[in-house]
Amino acid sequence: MPRERSAQTFQLKIEDIARACGVKFVEVIDPLDLKKATATIEKAIRFDGPAVIVSRRLCTIIEQREKRKRKERVIPYYIDQDKCNIKCDACIELLGCPAIIKQD
Q: Measured in whole angstroms, how far is the alpha carbon of residue 14 from the centre of its chain?
């Protein structure tokens, strides 16, 4: 007989799970803070052992939706084509973010 689902849940943080598994290098970053994110990634690469980096930020689509509800101005993000040397579309294909749309 199936059990009735409880309305009570609790939140687990990925960084706490990583620490509980014995990971010594665990950092939480804001992915839009590029200097800190880059420095943290470089530290993780040099770290001798497993390393976990958690990128935490509200999804851009949700953030923009909430701004529209509050009647705030929404400034769209875009890739500066003059600074993008490769034009490989990796930002679209690898990230799989629905907020990144290719325009011809």
A: 13
| Contact (Cβ atoms closer than 8 angstroms) between residue 29 and residue 42 | no
d(CA 59, CA 77): 13
Instruction: Give the chain's end-to-end CA distance (angstroms, integer).
Output: 55
Residue 70 to residue 63: CA distance in whole angstroms: 11
Residue 85 is classified by DSSP as S
30-67: pLDDT as tens digits: 988 989 999 999 999 999 999 999 999 988 888 889 99
The amino acid at residue 45 is I
DSSP state of 86: S
- Do residues 102 and 81 make contact, with C-beta atoms less than 8 angstroms apart? no
